[in-house]
Design goal:
single chain; 295 residues; alpha/beta; Rossmann fold; 41% helix; binds magnesium ion
């Protein structure tokens, strides 16, 4: 039997997409007294001089700096409560719960789910005010030693590996025990790429932008309009104007009435209407049962 394929997924990057800052700067460095400049310089050295992957470099630097003060993952989740977001978050998720789909869409069982795929620390995002609104969070993770303190990296998600998690969402294989490479026919995949909207901020999101767009989904690059140097805007402008990686760019303002909200609402509305039309065709062809009405 085929999957109902009535789920629309909005997939977000985290740093600079949902938040104007890097999560380490916001909650880890002030808590543990780490000098941000020295920390990021150390990471840069590990990458340049020793050939580290960016994500492993920051995870190693963090363990080295914290040394005997290494916290538990539970402590990292507590710190996540202090994470800050762009305007309109997390309120947008509540507003979307009631105001995004029409009654007709809902009668067809259509729903919108949110996901986060980040190269930052999953434990911090899990403790944030956004976590209750998202179906799944994928991020880098530390194992714990016998005292419960963070130790060797358990999972690292680099920007090129982020695309694997799009396929997990596409196939509904959200648990790591499930093999994402298992073959699954298109009609069995719960979230077709055409039902996916990926929101990211820059070059590290290019692999995801590409996978989603090449498979018929939408991609939006967001920038921080408060950045006086406009570096963030220029990244997005480059991605859309010169590189054709994304068709849409918007300020990272998630409040009702913003350009970004218009884009998200329009995209979700169009996908939902396509789902209704497809179901109507299938119904006529006698391949599915009619949706149940309250009357
Ligand atoms: Mg980012």
């Amino acid at each position: 039997m085929s999957s109902p394929q009535n789920t629309i997924a909005i997939v977000f990057d985290y740093d600079q997409t949902l938040s104007p800052n890097y999560m380490q700067d916001e909650v880890i460095f002030p808590t543990f007294g780490i000098d941000p400049k020295k920390f990021w310089t150390r990471c840069h050295e590990l990458v340049k001089a020793q050939g580290y992957d960016n994500e492993l470099a920051y995870m190693k630097a963090l363990l080295d700096y914290l040394d005997i003060d290494r916290p538990t993952n539970a402590r990292l989740r507590e710190l996540g409560a202090g994470l800050q977001f762009f305007p309109g978050l997390p309120e947008m998720f509540d507003e979307f719960r009631t105001g995004l789909l029409t009654a007709e869409h809902e009668a067809h069982g259509i729903r919108v789910e949110h996901y986060i795929i980040s190269s930052g620390l999953k434990a911090l995002i899990e403790g944030s005010r956004i976590a209750p609104h998202v179906r799944a969070i994928f991020g880098c993770e530390f194992a714990e030693d016998r005292d419960g303190r963070i130790t060797f990296p358990k999972r690292v998600i680099s920007h090129t590996q982020k695309t694997q998690f799009l396929f997990r969402i596409n196939k509904g294989l959200l648990e790591y025990t499930q093999d994402v490479n298992d073959h699954m026919p298109a009609e069995l995949r719960p979230v077709p790429f055409e039902h996916m909207i990926y929101v990211g901020d820059g070059p590290t999101d290019v692999p995801c932008f590409t996978v989603v767009r090449q498979n018929g989904g939408h991609a939006i690059a967001v920038y921080n309009p408060a950045d006086p140097a406009r570096a963030s805007f220029k990244k997005c402008y480059q991605l859309s104007t010169h590189a054709d990686r994304v068709r849409h760019i918007a300020p990272a303002d998630y409040r009702a009435g913003s350009h970004l909200r218009f884009l998200l609402e329009q995209m979700v509305g169009e996908v939902a209407t396509r789902i209704v039309e497809r179901r109507a065709r299938d119904l006529e062809a006698g391949t599915i049962r009619a949706p149940k009405h309250a009357d």
